[in-house]
Design brief:
With 498 residues, this protein is mainly alpha-helical. It contains 20 helices and 13 strands. The structure holds glutamic acid (GLU). Glutamic acid binds at residues 19-21, 53, 215, 227, 229, 233.
């Protein structure tokens, strides 16, 4: 271990985990939790684990799990243990890694707690619980459940169950006056009064375990040393600490991450724009930028640097620099960050990332690597998102030229045919495959002198002959990227329409 804050008094190896519930897409907040857990494990030479918390049978779906795992894979947050994103099989020695497949384990621990008198069967009906709550509200007391079954013996309860009565398993909250406290990695010391909770359910009727119970058992059995999660889980930590104590499990260190807000300082929601990682992927953000941006939502590097690679973030990550104050999700900054990372990619790699966007838009572009490299040197400064490349490259698509209706006026001018013919003949006589920017400017001048036209009567017909419309990107940028044969073919297509 090479970082002071990596110390967990109860564990000799750093092991972190991301434990998503597969009830929807991977939210950017979840991705940030995963990222911090990943960075912390890597920084300390530890393990990063993925566990699926799918005990909510009504809301959990396999599709959601697949989507979330695919998003993590896209981000490059690779885990050494967990559910494989492609095969959906378990990898690692502490499986199964899906809680729905671990029910017998939870049952075993519940039985142990029942046997030790630390938990009990509770036969209260929903109506009885509700009636107690209402009375407590009326009398101005905390809304706590007092189960009449708390002091029943196990044998007594089991006899009732044998008769077919349904019971939950409730944890017997210790009658302590002491406070529970722990040192949070983000917020420092957190104290809970022990009377903040009362006997809570571990297994529902039917045997389904609750989140707090599974979470503790799994983190302990999977030897998790550091638990990072959203601050909304802070209030669960008291119940979990009680369970760690009762089960004699070593306590991990906890870090509760600040909430992410939208630009109006309200909790980040769909109202602010995209909140799913996948949507950013589809819009043309790249994982390097997404990770870098999310890392800075609640953490800062010691050097104050902002544009960081994954390796740099691993080197610099430090829980001391996790901020307890809420972070603001600034889309303008994310876009800027994307432009920085996108433009820094090697061209061959950048092309690989752009290819699916071109394919989706139906663009057919040269496969020649030199051409791709040259074109990116020209275009990448205009790109912030991968998707921006589509319109930049559209005029260069090798699909047959479609002369756009807005070209009609220019096609009707008296000198247009002559301009296009001259242009075509100069291109045809050009000795090499490509025309440079300077050569293009010179050819344009020659057409001007030979035909005796200038201004828009010169430029627009040439533009239509090259890109099929009288307006658009500068020809001196486009023409050097178009093969002579293509330019001739396009001029011919236009001549047929004059
Ligand atoms: N399944 C929980 C969630 O998705 C994880 C809580 C935790 O990390 O302990 O919020």
């Amino acid at each position: 271990m090479n970082s002071s804050n990596a110390a967990s008094p109860n564990h000799d190896r750093v092991r972190t985990r991301f434990a998503p519930s597969p009830t929807g897409y991977l939210h950017v907040g979840g991705a940030r939790t995963a990222l911090y857990s990943y960075l912390f494990a890597k920084k300390n030479g530890g393990d990063f684990i993925l566990r699926v918390e799918d005990t909510d049978e009504e809301r959990s779906t396999e599709d959601s799990m697949k989507m979330q795992l695919a998003d993590l894979a896209w981000l490059g947050l690779n885990y050494s243990e967990g559910v494989d994103s492609k095969t959906l099989k378990d990898i690692g020695p502490y499986g199964p890694y899906r809680q729905s497949q671990r029910k017998n384990i939870y049952r075993e621990y519940a039985d142990k707690l029942l046997k030790d008198g630390i938990a009990y069967h509770c036969f209260m009906t929903d109506e009885e619980i509700e009636a107690q709550r209402e009375l407590a509200i009326k009398e101005g007391r905390p809304q706590q459940v007092n189960s009449p079954y708390r002091d029943w013996t196990l044998a007594q309860a089991e006899a009732e169950i044998a008769k077919g009565r349904q019971a939950t398993v409730r944890f017997k909250v210790p009658d302590l006056t002491r406070e529970y406290s722990f040192v949070d990695l983000v917020r420092g010391e957190v104290k809970f009064p022990s009377d903040m909770v009362n006997d809570f359910v571990l297994l529902r009727t039917g045997g389904m375990p609750v989140y707090n119970f599974c979470n503790v058992i799994d983190d302990a059995l999977m030897k998790i040393s550091h638990v990072m999660r959203g601050e909304e889980h802070l209030s669960n930590t008291l119940r979990q600490m009680m369970l760690y104590e009762a089960l004699k499990f070593p306590l991990p260190r906890f870090g509760h991450l600040s909430i992410i807000l939208g630009s109006d300082r309200q909790k980040l929601s769909k109202r602010h724009g995209a909140t799913s990682v996948n949507e950013y992927n589809e819009r043309g953000y790249i994982p390097e930028a997404m990770n870098n941006f999310l890392a800075l939502c609640g953490w800062s590097s010691a050097t104050g640097e902002e544009v960081l690679s994954m390796d740099e973030m691993i080197q610099q990550f430090d829980t001391d620099r996790l901020h307890p104050a809420s972070a603001v999700f600034d889309e303008v900054k994310l876009k800027w960050m994307n432009a920085q990372h996108l433009r820094a990619l090697p061209h061959a790699e950048l092309w690989k990332r752009l290819a699916p966007f071109f394919a989706k838009a139906g663009l057919i572009l040269p496969t020649d690597a030199d051409w791709q490299d040259r074109s990116l040197s020209v275009f990448k400064i205009y790109m912030e998102l991968l998707a921006d490349a589509v319109e930049l490259y559209r005029p260069l698509s090798l699909a047959p030229l479609e002369v756009q209706p807005e070209s009609k006026e220019a096609l009707g001018w008296p000198k247009t045919r002559e301009v296009v013919e001259k242009w075509k003949s100069l291109v045809t006589a050009h000795p090499t495959d490509y025309i440079s920017e300077a050569e293009f400017v010179a050819y344009q001048d020659q057409v001007k002198n030979l035909v005796g036209v200038k201004g828009k009567e010169l430029f627009m017909p040439i533009r239509v002959a090259v890109i099929g419309k009288p307006q658009g990107a500068e020809l001196k940028i486009l023409v050097p990227l178009m093969k002579k044969t293509v330019l001739i073919e396009r001029a011919d297509t236009v001549l047929q329409q004059i």
